[in-house]
Amino acid sequence: MPTMDSEKLKSIIAARMQRASSSLSTLDKEFSDAKKKALEYYYGKTTALELDDTDLSSRLNSNDVAEVIDGAMPSLMRSFAAGDDIVKCTAEKGGDDTAKAEQSTDYINYVLKKNDGFLFIQDWIMDGLLSRIGFAKAYWEDETKEDIQRFQDLTPEEADLIGAKDAGDGFFELSEQRVRGEIKCEVIPPEELWIDPTSKGLKRAPIIAHGRYVTLSDAREMGFEVSTDDVNNLTLDNQDEVIARDRGVDNLNDTFRDEDESQQKIHLFEAYTKLDVNGSGIASLYKVFFIDPECSRILHYEPCEVCQIVAWTAKRVPHRLMGKSLADDAVEIQEAKTYNLRSMMNNLSLMSNPRRKVIKSQVDMAAVQENDIGQIIPVDNMGAIENEQIPNVSGNCLELAQYLDQARERRTGIRQFG
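^ thats the sequence. predicted structure below, dont judge the formating
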C-alpha cells in the first residue's frame, strides 16, 4: 500500500481537525445551545423561566418537548422496528436472486439482533428528534481475546509439552490469544462527532471523525500499539449538552486516572478523509486512526470505499447537514405554557390566601402575621381587616392553554395523547 510521510499526514489531519468542531459546537454555538436547551426542556426544566430560591411563586413546568418527542416515538418505532424482521431484502423484478435476498434478510436481521437492533434504532431516532441530527455507524471489528486455562497436578515436563507456565501454588496457566471479528452497530453521541459545521453533507465534508475515550486494553484488543505515554489527564464529558443530559451526575469534570494501567484511557479518533497518498493528484477516501484532536500520533490508516458513519435529521433544511428537530418547534410553546400555568397557579394561590389590608391601631398585628388556617384575629372594629380583591383569571389561562396546545399540534404534527 502506498504510504505518506507520517509528519505530513499528522499535519494534514491536525489542520482539518482544527477546522472541524466537536459536536459541531465550536463554530456553531447555536447548535450546541439548542441541544442543551432541548435536553433540559425534555427533562421538564424550563430554564428560560428559572426562579431563584427566594421566589415563592409557582415552579410548575409544562412538558411539551417531552410530550412531542415521546408522542412521535411509538409510530416511528412501529414503522422501523415492528415484527420479527426489521429489514427485508427483495430480489429485483424479473431477476433470479430470490434465494440470495432471503439469505441477506436473515443475515442482516441476525446482525441487528446481535447489536440490540431495537434499542439501536430507538436511540438513533431519538437523537434526531431531540438534537437536530442523529449519527450512527456500522463497522467490522476484530477483537483479540486472551483465553487462560488453569491446570493442576502437572509435572514440569507435561507443562512444557503443552506450553503452560508455572503460576505458583501447584497451578499452571496456558494462555492463548484468538482473534474474533463481527459487525458492530452503534449510535454516536452528537458530542463525539467532529465535522466541519459548514459541510453540506457527510460526503462533502473535508473530515468526519468519531472521537471517544477507550481503555488501553480495548485499544490493544483492536490491534493498536498504545502505552501510558498516550494517556492524558482525562476530562470526562464537559460539554454543556452532556452536563444537561447527565444531570445529577457528580464529578463530570473531574480528571481521573485508573491505577490499573490497562484501564487508563486515551482519546481515540476514527476519521474519514480524502488523501492523495501516492502523489497522483487524485485523492481517495481513507480511514485514519489517531490519538487526541491535535493528532499527537497516527496509529493506522487504510483506504476505504465508503464512510461508515451515517446521519439523519428530523426536518431537513436544503444545503445544510442538519435541519430542525421536533424539540425546536416545541421549546417556545413550552415556555409560553409554563408561564401560563404558573400565572394560573399563582392566581389561585392568591385567591385562596389573599393579602390583607388592616388598620394597624385596631388589630393585633402579631395575630395577623401568623396567617394559620382558622387563626383567630382579635380586632377592635369589624372593618379593621379587609381582604385584597383578586380577579379570577383561570378562565383566560385555560383558553390560552387550549390555543397553545393547538399551536403545538400545528407546528409539530403530533397530536396529544388520548
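The two ends are 61 Å apart (CA to CA).
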